[in-house]
Amino acid sequence: MSAVFGYWSRSGNRKPLPVLKKMASSLSHKGKETAGLKAFPEIGLGNRLFLSTPESYFETLPLETSDGLILTYDGRIDNREDLIEMIGIDTCCDHNRPITDADIIIHAFRKWGKDSFGKLIGDFAIVIWDQKDKRLHCVVDPMGYRPIFYSVLDKGDFIFASEIKALLASKLFHPKPNELFVAQYLLATPLKNDHTGYSNIKKISPGHYLCVTEENLQNVSFYSFNNVKSVYFKRNNEYADAFKSLFVKAVTSRLRCNKDVGIALSGGLDSSSICSVAQAYTNKEIHTFSAIFPNLPDEERKLIDERDYVCLLLKKYPALAKCFIRCDTLSPLQHIDFMLKHIDNLFWGVNLYISLALYRAAKEKGITVFLNGLDGDTVVSHGLELFPDYLFKGKWYKMAKNFKMYCSFCNINALNPINWWKLVLAPIIKPILGKIYTEFYYENLKLLSKDLKTNCQLKQLLRDNLHTFKNSHLYHVEAISSPVFPYVLEIENQLASSVGIELRSPFLDRRLIEFCLGIPVDEKLQQGRSRFVLREAMRGFLPSKIRLRYSKGNLGVNFARNFLEKDVKRLHILKYINHIKPFVNPAHTNNLPQDIAKTTRYGLNNPLQQLQNIIRIFQLEVLGRWLHKLDE
What we know:
Blueprint: E1 3-8, H1 16-26, E2 36-39, E3 43-48, E4 63-64, E5 69-77, H2 80-87, H3 101-112, E6 122-130, E7 135-140, E8 149-152, E9 158-161, H4 164-169, H5 179-187, E10 202-203, E11 208-212, E12 217-221, H6 236-253, E13 261-264, H7 269-281, E14 286-292, H8 298-304, H9 307-316, E15 321-326, H10 336-342, H11 352-364, E16 369-371, H12 376-380, H13 386-392, H14 396-410, H15 417-436, H16 438-441, H17 450-455, H18 458-465, H19 472-480, H20 484-497, E17 502-504, H21 510-518, E18 525-526, E19 529-530, H22 532-537, H23 544-547, H24 556-567, H25 577-580, H26 586-590, H27 592-603, H28 611-631
Parallel strand pairs: 13-14, 13-16, 14-15, 16-17
Antiparallel strand pairs: 1-3, 1-9, 2-3, 4-5, 5-6, 6-7, 7-11, 8-9, 8-10, 11-12, 18-19
Helix pairs in contact: 2-3, 6-7, 6-21, 13-14, 27-28
């Protein structure tokens, strides 16, 4: 949760230090009261250091070395022991203090140069200024967990930071809305990793580094999940054993901190697995935080309430400290002004208000490091790509047998043609149809104005974004490499850091992702059980009722009801209608008052029936407020 920032006056027209001070002030929530600054006549680097690991207490950033390297860094290196041994760094450091992550990064860069970036495992944003070569290296980890935003100003000056607000605080340029980002926001479909809501601000893509010289910028990939090696074992149980070993490593490496740890516990497979492993492998006190919804109508509460599963895990691990947060009293727009202040980009996370409630509850307990289960579903994979994969390979009997077992496990009808379509045929046919009938595939496309679609050449972009099914492995790689991940991480991390919380996500450990991508698809779906390797690895850790659970709580119930009951009166959308008109189809803006009234009238009786309309109104409300803020 630390922050990096800096400014290179490549034109030589402006001194860096005054710019750095403005940027540092805007990032005060990210770390120490006093920001670390290192300024020279043309370039300056800064750091807001958040003390979240035992070694961080011995770090001084930016770090300047005797051979002309300057490092500023945000993150956590997880393969410390391996790197220390490979580099022989223990002979290079002051033995009166521990080896810091900054020590490891600098010595790795000295030994391997740019090749060192791919050897680092963890969540990191690294910036290294080489004074001799006059090169600036800006590096972002393969999942984009710690972002770096940047802008190239008039006359070529370069400015970067961990959050967009620091770039805006410099007052060196006027931000402009990015039409393509607004379009993908309205479509709820991230299309590009390097785009932001501002046309003159970009973001370094995951697994890339930006090499900045006096003449140009070079964007280079140092890691890709496309190159993951296949993993094969002779016996089934070996996959579960290997997964368990890596998962324990992923969790325990994220427990490296000086204080107690908080974990979001929903009662689902992912969060319960993290809690159980954390409790089994650390002496720290683990605090769990769970959202509850006791006052929803009975029929709606049944769809969202997971407290029985939470209590089942707490019974197995009585040492876990529990905290239940009433979220049925909260609504999506209740803290919208706070969110817009701290989240720089447009956001469509309709359940962010629940995340904020958990982070605030954790902060009240003195927690600064908070683990979550994001996004175990995608990383481990439900293995449903097995069905189209077997269809492609002509393994029709095996496909039908596995389909029948899966339907039995999930309690759905194996004879229903709709289930055959969704699970077997749709992954193959829908992308093909989407390339031909784009308006049909992307339902929200009709929400966009004609000018927006034309200016962004949106239909062609959307067609290019659709990947036809080739095999189960590539299907999983494409899911992991989706721009959705870095976008969600950016939003969640900014929200958490706004209240002094550092997020960590064990399922996004690179070693674990590589393993899950490398194993055969029938280790992801076996005996009708999705996420098979995780379920097997958690034998003995989880109660069977949780380990074999296939259902999930539907948070849309609380979102829809409380939006209608509490947030309709908070809507400013009609006040900001002129801001959104250039981006939205007039058919929607002209009928907006009637749509809101109709959605409210019918939705209160059955909120889920109106969920899509409510989400659309929420999106337009956030867009209007964000654009208004941009104009201020």
